[in-house]
Design brief:
The chain is mainly alpha-helical. It contains 10 helices and no strands. About 4% of the residues have low confidence.
Length: 254
């Protein structure tokens, strides 16, 4: 038998090397992931409209969507939709979900370094805002959070903005997009910049001043994602940033 003949070793099927989506594949899948996030979010509003027996029109969607609890639920429902499409994209490449997204625990020193850098950036923007006579937090967010506190939706808003939103946005930006683009012609520097730009576009409800702040924080998150090779780190930093902003706005003023 060939299996016993050293001149004719048995044919062994080698496992395929896990692949990575490169520039255009990552860009196209990134668009699908963003659309899935949007569908998950708007789907939650649609379900609430149907549940209340309201007419299915733009006015009803806007009416329900402006409620703090409904908006929080919308943000939360964007997370499973995002994870589902990211999982599918990685599965097609026969890669590990954990490995592809760098879901590795960072060291305490990396957490401390990332947190200190984030604090420096946020404080620099705070000082700049005060010197320019600008709000440190967008007015509509202040109104939303305080309204949510007064209407008993504080916990739901905390969960939405401090857990669901950081996970959804980091999985998209510093997880999937950074992984693919850093393996393309962009390399790490280009991936950090472009993924930060995409993350900034997700926040187009802000004006240009706040978008600049978002972009600068995104660059720091991208650098820490590369330095620590850990998406959990950027999720934690993102959650810390949002949690601090939500708590301060809800209970200690704008």
């Amino acid at each position: 038998m060939d299996s016993l003949n050293p001149e004719h070793p048995p044919l062994i099927e080698m496992p395929a090397t896990p692949g990575v989506w490169k520039f255009w594949g990552t860009a196209l899948w990134g668009l699908l992931i963003f659309l899935a996030m949007f569908v998950g979010q708007i789907g939650a509003i649609v379900l609430l409209v149907v549940q209340r027996g309201l007419p299915m029109d733009l006015a009803s969607l806007q009416l329900v969507g402006h409620e703090p609890a409904a908006l929080a639920l919308s943000v939360i429902m964007g997370l499973p939709a995002t994870l589902a499409v990211v999982w599918l994209a990685i599965r097609i490449k026969k890669a590990s979900f954990t490995g592809y997204l760098a879901l590795h625990w960072p060291s305490w020193m990396q957490v401390l370094f990332g947190a200190v850098g984030l604090i420096v950036i946020v404080l620099a923007w705070e000082v700049t805002s005060r010197s320019l006579g600008r709000e440190a937090t967008p007015g509509f967010m202040t109104d939303l959070l305080k309204s949510g506190r007064d209407k008993g939706a504080a916990v739901l808003l905390l969960l939405a903005f401090s857990v669901a939103a950081p996970m959804s946005e980091e999985v998209l930006a510093r997880g999937f997009l950074f992984r693919g683009w850093s393996a393309s012609f962009l390399r790490v520097p280009g991936a950090i910049v472009l993924s930060s730009l995409v993350w900034t576009v997700v926040h187009l409800q802000y004006d240009m001043y706040f978008l600049a702040e978002v972009f600068s924080i995104g660059l720091w998150f991208g650098y820490m994602r590369y330095r620590a090779n850990s998406l959990w780190l950027t999720i934690a930093l993102h959650a810390l940033n949002n949690l601090t902003a939500v708590v301060l706005t809800m209970w200690l003023g704008s």
